């Protein structure tokens, strides 16, 4: 196996050759996910009740719970099978990360998209303050900031910038954003 991702209700893995595998409960083994046959998977992520993956072709697939729009499919309907997420024209995904009930997609141009629950500003989209978003939207990054990696906690996001700085947003308790400020914050 090349990579694994786990959550309350899911176990995913990337096998050699980029094959996406999921846990089969009744058999207690990992098996290739039939709906993704033929796709080469670059990264995987799990939220509390949803899963996401990025293919080497730069596409995103999501499935699972969608009560906060965390699948980015434009609605709040749960999906049992992986579904292709529509990215903006000419966008190519490099990776994906999931918080408990939100998803962040890293794009090849150093930008990020997010969807799902935004009750604590974890989407980095101030225009959506406190609301759930079922469609991907651009994270409001400071000027000239280009991201190279993204990771999510339950309700916060930490990104590595191309210039090796760290940028954080979302829920700030116990210093999880790496700042002294004691309230949740937007991107900075």
From TrEMBL:
Classification via Pfam families: RCC1
InterPro entries linked to this entry: RCC1/BLIP-II, Reg_chr_condens, Ub_ligase/GEF_domain
Keyword list, A-Z: Repeat
Keyword rRNA-binding: no
Repeat (RCC) residue spans along the chain: 58-109, 110-163
Superkingdom, natural source: Eukaryota
Protein name, entry field: Uncharacterized protein
């Amino acid at each position: 196996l090349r990579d694994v991702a786990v959550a309350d209700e899911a176990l995913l893995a990337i096998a050699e050759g980029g094959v996406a595998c999921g846990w089969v409960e009744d058999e207690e083994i990992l098996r290739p996910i039939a709906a993704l046959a033929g796709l080469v998977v670059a990264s995987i992520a799990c939220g509390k009740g949803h899963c996401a993956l990025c293919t080497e072709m730069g596409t995103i697939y999501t499935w699972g719970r969608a009560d906060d729009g965390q699948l980015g499919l434009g609605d709040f309907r749960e999906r049992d099978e992986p579904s292709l997420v529509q990215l903006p024209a000419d966008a190519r995904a490099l990776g994906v990360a999931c918080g408990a009930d939100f998803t962040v997609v890293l794009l090849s141009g150093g930008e990020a998209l997010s969807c799902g629950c935004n009750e604590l500003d974890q989407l980095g989209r101030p225009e959506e303050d406190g609301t759930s978003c079922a469609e991907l939207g651009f994270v409001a990054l400071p000027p000239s900031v280009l991201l190279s990696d993204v990771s999510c906690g339950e309700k916060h996001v930490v990104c590595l910038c191309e210039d090796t700085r760290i940028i954080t947003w979302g829920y700030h308790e116990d210093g999880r954003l790496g700042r002294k400020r004691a309230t949740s914050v937007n991107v900075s």
